[in-house]
Amino acid sequence: MSKTYIGRRGGVSVLGLALALAAGAQVIAPAALAQDADSKTDLSAEDNGAVSQLSLGKIVVSTGVDKVAIDTPQSVTTLDQEDIDNAQASTIGDLLEGIPGVSAVGGVSGLGQGFNIRGMGTGVADSDSRILINVDGVSKFFEQYRMGGFFSEPELYKRVEVLRGPSSSTLYGAGALAGVINFQTKDASDFLRGDDRLSVRVKGSGETNADARAGSVIIAGRPSDNLDVLFSLSSRVSDDYKDGNGNVVVPSKAEGDSVLAKARYYVGGDKKHSVWASAEKWQNDSYQVYDQAEAFATTPVRRKTVNESYIVGYDNAFEGNDWLDVKAQLAYSNMQVDQTDNAGFSPNTVGYNSSYIYKTVQGRLENTSTFTFGPDWNAFVTTGLQTYKQERRNPRYRQDGTYINPGATTHPEGDLTRYSAFIQGEFIWKEKLTIIPGVRVDRVKLESEKLIATGTKPDTVKDTGVSPKIAVLYSLNDNFNLFGSVSRTVRMPVLDEVYSATTAQPANLTLKNEESDNIEVGGALAFDSLFADRDKFHAKLTVFRNDVDNLIARGTTGSPYFRNFGKARFEGVELEAEYATRSFFTRAALSLVDGDDRSGAKAIPLNTIPADELTLNAGYVIPSWNLTLGWRGEFAKEAHKYNVTTGAVTSTTDDYNIHSLYAVWKPQGETVLRDVDVRLSVDNVGDEYFRRHLSSLPAEGRTVKLSVGKTF
């Protein structure tokens, strides 16, 4: 295997503008989905059509040195722009649901979702820092109880990479016991071709079930040879949808507005030295039920939610100097929920009006050096420093305007400060053996002004975590490789876990760090021209076991609010396989995960384990029409919830088989339809009633989705 280095408001909406422009361009045509001849795939130039639908042949940029997914010694999935567009996702959970080992948990609306990777991740407290989420390198971490952890718009992104397993902690942050999700926003260069100085992209979409509407306008420009600029504006609004039984699912609304502005100035003409800046904001303002995660407390509240980031960056490859390839950035992030009109859910405690404010300043500096040792060895060494400081504030007020207190018993105010250093090497021998050692050191400080339950100021908590790893990949020949990794990852407690306290359950200032010992082994196959000329077959199998000591979870009355529970074990199998000719493609992904609490005499199954799941995708490309027709299937086994004390089954999620059809059409030629893309899908064709195991609400019944885009 070769390696390759706004809701419903008055005025003109973005949706209306996008649809009007699309209609004016006469792009509404018989809908069907297709493969873009100009799409940026990572396969060789001779491959196109169905072959470019393959996933394991895509470049991964989040693993140190860029490499093809099938040549990484861990499970990793890349969604490029074509994948994101084809998903026609209303929420980030919709976008990630088809990735093996990844599930959306909690609610089903844009607000209310958390994520689960390999059995780690909850939808209730949303204080689960075992999964790291980054947007353009900026870490997003939000903990409001029963609210959801990440709020954004799928249309903002051109690439999503999901790195499963804790070995990703080395480059991205302490405590990624489950994995890392990296999002990359769009750039002007994605829309400018050749000598273009200006490009405009408009898109409108709709969905029958929830009466969903979305639209976006993107303007990309190159005012001078060395300056690229981009401005993007999008809006989405969706009503509550109906499940397969025809019942309205509440809460399932998904709405929001987003804006993205980016600029990059290239120093010199080689495009390898640049300074850049970006500003991104997503916001929502609507009435929702209080408990978005599980719909347990269904009293309505009004929430104005804002997620914004501002970044300045510097990239310099130092052409001709193998020792220096520098990337640096400084970012400010603000995630804030202003919650008002809470008349039904403990307004004198939670607050009739309250705000949840998370302000974060982050810095990152890294350098990659290249070394050559004789004719057979090449090495790439990445070193870096990170800083992270988050201020969390939570003012609360009664209905008469009187101030209650700063923070709550289960959501204390406080500050988190973290300093980190990391080093990762990639040593390659004859393009056959790759050895990737790495280590990360994190120093964390937690501070809180007052414990609400006692009215006293608690001690500051400080700790240090060291997370080493080593991964090895060996290519037996051009068609077969084997890989394995061993990593020890430390996750230090967060503010909620240390300082949450009630009169019946004290704070726990002596919580121990969670320590994960993870082992992964696997292999991959890759064949070209196996059954037909220039066809491709890829397969990758990963087996993992993750033992977590000092697992942190909620305590019971009489014990600390959070406490360590001894040991838990997570283990499973992930299998990906795909095959394509120039006209036909098919992909399969299987995920089997198991997990037990092993702190007592008897192993008790964990309630965060997803159902065993198989997803299939098959399609046919008609190159002369640039048309793709396809089918998707999602097959899940029944799964259970358990009594955490006895292990007895308390509830069951039924198994399900869901089928969807889709089409993509991209007209060719020098007509008015040039640079148009039309996507049509029918999800849940059989209108089946089903609920994903880690979701609190049933999934959407049959729905027809149509999106039309045009690039000028």
From TrEMBL:
Q: Does the keyword Signal apply?
A: yes
The TonB-dependent receptor plug domain sits at: 70-180
Q: What's the protein's topology in the membrane?
A: Multi-pass membrane protein
Localization per record: Cell outer membrane
What top-level branch of life does the organism fall under?
Bacteria
Q: What is its main location?
A: membrane
| SUPFAM superfamilies per UniProt | Porins
Entry-linked Pfam families: Plug, TonB_dep_Rec_b-barrel
Which UniProt keywords are given for this protein, alphabetically ordered? Cell outer membrane, Membrane, Receptor, Signal, TonB box, Transmembrane, Transmembrane beta strand, Transport
- Where the record annotates domain TonB-dependent receptor-like beta-barrel, the positions are 280-685
Q: Which family does it belong to?
A: Belongs to the TonB-dependent receptor family.
Q: Write the protein's name.
A: TonB-dependent receptor
